[in-house]
Design brief:
mainly alpha; about 0% strand
């Protein structure tokens, strides 16, 4: 599935959610003008400036964010396609955990999983090859407990991508067996799956051949 098709699938599967009459958001973080824009502007016409403060103010400590699902397709689309998007993909993903994805309909979960798969595939394409963005998205995806293993299979298609991903994490992997992105909160199953992936074929083989390095056993990292 292409990224464009995956985005359309997201819109279609969340289309039955009503527009919030009054967006539930932090009044100290989201200006009144921005809140009114979110309540009145057509979903697909919302720009990153209209949504950025809402995304960054949606914190797990502040509870459940039912409105977030209405805006989710547009947030994901902008985060994936607009080079001006801010904040980090992790910040766009983490509020999703507060909507309890385990209770979503299977088709909604599948639509988001398909989107992540298409996005990582797109970021690894010859026109993009943006391994830094892949790293940022994997951290966000793992934060909502979606399966990262099929996404790692996409990286594993190319030794070049394996090594680029490794190089971005090499120092912390070698020193303490952790990934380098500062947004990782452990324990995290997705983080552990990535560590395990680095220590198994084909990632293990590519790293060993290129650098002669054997990474620490993820079950027994250095103290």
């Amino acid at each position: 599935m292409t990224l464009a098709a995956a985005i359309e699938f997201l819109y279609a599967t969340f289309a039955d959610l009503p527009r919030p009459v009054k967006v539930d958001c932090c009044p100290c973080c989201v200006h009144e003008e921005d809140r009114r824009t979110m309540e009145t502007k057509p979903l697909r016409e919302l720009a990153w400036r209209d949504l950025a403060s809402y995304v960054t103010s949606a914190r797990p400590s502040e509870g459940y964010f039912p409105d977030y699902l209405y805006f989710l397709p547009r947030i994901m689309e902008i985060a994936a396609t607009d080079p001006d998007w801010w904040p980090d993909p992790y910040m766009a993903c983490i509020p999703i955990s507060q909507t309890d994805p385990a209770l979503w309909t299977p088709v909604r979960r599948q639509a988001l999983q398909d989107f992540f798969h298409a996005l990582i595939d797109h970021l690894l394409s010859p026109d993009e090859e943006n391994i830094r963005s892949v790293d940022e998205w994997l951290c966000g995806i793992a934060s909502i407990h979606f399966n990262v293993r099929p996404l790692l299979d996409l990286i594993a298609r190319s030794d070049e991508h394996i090594l680029a991903y490794y190089e971005g994490n090499a120092r912390t992997l070698i020193e303490n067996g952790f990934l380098s992105n500062a947004f990782w909160n452990r324990p995290n199953q997705g983080h552990d799956h990535i560590i395990e992936w680095f220590s198994t074929s084909p990632a293990f083989d590519a790293i060993a051949i290129a650098y002669g390095i054997v990474l620490p056993n993820p079950e027994n990292p250095p103290a």
